[in-house]
Predict the 3D structure of the following.
Amino acid sequence: MKFNRLRLVGFKTFVEPTDLLIEPGLTGVVGPNGCGKSNLVEALRWVMGESSHKAMRAQDMDDVIFAGTTGRPSRNAAEVALQLDNSDRTAPAGFNEWDQLEVVRRIERGSGSAYRINGRDVRARDVSLLFADASTGARSPALVRQGQIGEIVGAKPNARRRILEEAAGVAGLHARRHEAEMR
Ligand code: ATP
Ligand code: MG
């Protein structure tokens, strides 16, 4: 699976519909401070199922909806759509009959999020499952937050070990061992 295209409407600074084609290879996003570069990466994390508003630098999940500026009214909904190229047929079972997958997450003020995959209503869990084996997803160590490198360097040894274990994919193993020892 490859990321193909990201569409945003009403998400944080992306108030007008924004359509980004993600070409193969390296993609760079440049722009002045505060223009929305980090918001873009957060949109990617959000559409893949992020459930923590803190990970969105928000007080509440509704804060991802465009809050308005002087002269521009706030919106009542935000939507992010991520298109995936599955022509290599590497999507997990249950999603593998399509060449293209489109994951859509929509939030309306006061009523939470809803997800669709290729037009079909799905649960947040289905979206997590789609990304679970693809080394990506909302909690993937491949998505590095701004300032996170500094946090890792400055972290206490135990906290740093946890980050490295998560990246190495052994965090789940530890949790299961801990559970077994408690029995
Ligand atoms: P830097 O170069 O400093 O890292 P950046 O390009 O990463 O900047 P972001 O952090 O993505 O910038 O964007 C921050 C801007 O997004 C702020 O001006 C903030 O007010 C705006 N913003 C965040 N949430 C919303 C929202 N819900 N509605 C409108 N604007 C928002
Ligand atoms: Mg930033």
Remarks:
- The chain has a mean pLDDT of 90.
